[in-house]
Amino acid sequence: MSQREILSITTGRPTSDGAGVSLTRVFGGAAPERFDPFLMLDEFGSNDPDEYIAGFPPHPHRGFETITYMLEGRMRHEDHMGNVGRLESGGVQWMTAARGVIHSEMPEQEQGLMRGFQLWLNLPAHAKLGEPGYRDFAPAEIPQLTLPGGVQAKVIAGTLKGDGIEQPGVVQRPDTEPQLFDLHLPAGSGLSPQVPEGHRLLLYVYEGALRVGEQTLAKGQLARLSEHGELRLHSGSDTRVLLLAGRPLGEPIVQYGPFVMNSREEIEQALRDFRDGSLA
C-alpha cells in the first residue's frame, strides 16, 4: 500500500481572542476548504495570568462544533441553555453550536499554567440550524491506551485502529466522522494508526519532533497529508502530537467571526438573529 505524504507544512501565528487571551492560531481564517471539515485550531498556553485571566466572556456561535481539550488548568463554561461545566486538566468539552449558542469560557484560576487547544469542526448544511448541545468529559472518561513501544494514546473522538488496536473514543459524530487523538511517542517509538481513505488528515506536533515518511515535523508545525494510503509515524525524541482526521463535507464555507454557514445570506440572517435576540 502507498503511504500518505505530507502536502504542506505550516506554522501557527501568535494572536489573541476573547478578552485578550494570548494564543497561537495553528490554522484558521483564509482558505478553510484546505482543512475541511476542520475550520480552526488554537493552542493556548501560558504561566502568566495576564495572558489568560480575562477569558472569553459571553459570545455567540452558529453553524459548527467546538472541541476544547485542556492539558493544564481549569475553565468554567456557562451558556444560555443553563449548562454550567468545569473543564479540568485532561478533560474535554464538546459543544455543538448548531442554530445558536451564547456561552462564556472563563478561567477558574488566578495563577499557574493554563494550556490546551480549541478545535472548530464544521457541521453539514442540513445540521447547521439543528439542536445545540453541550457535554463535558472528565479525564477518567477518555480512553487512554499504552501501546507497543510505550506509545500512549488518548482517544477523544472516532476510533483508534492499527497495530492490533481498535478503541472507540468518547465521541462519535455523523457526517464528518472526526478522529481526534492525542499521541505521546517516546524516543525511538512508532505507530501506524488507520485513517479512512478519503478523509482529511492533519498532524500537529506540540512537543518534540515527528518523522512522517522521509520528512520531519518540528514542534509547532502542522502537516496536511494526502487522503489515501497508509500512515506511519516515528519519533526520534519524546514527542506529543494531535492527530485530526475527518470526512470533508465539500460544501461552501462562509465565515463571519463566530458564525460559519454556507452562504452570505445565511451569515446576514445570523447577524440579524443575534441582534434581535433570536439566535439561540
Automatic annotation (TrEMBL):
Residues 23-121 form the Pirin N-terminal domain. Pfam families: Pirin, Pirin_C. Residues 1-14 have a biased composition (Polar residues). CDD domains: cupin_pirin_C, cupin_pirin_N. The lineage of its organism: Bacteria, Pseudomonadati, Pseudomonadota, Gammaproteobacteria, Pseudomonadales. Residues 1-20 are annotated as: Disordered. This is Pirin family protein. Gene3D superfamilies: Jelly Rolls. Residues 181-278 form the Pirin C-terminal domain. InterPro entries: Pirin, Pirin_C_dom, Pirin_N_dom, RmlC-like_jellyroll, RmlC_Cupin_sf. Belongs to the pirin family.
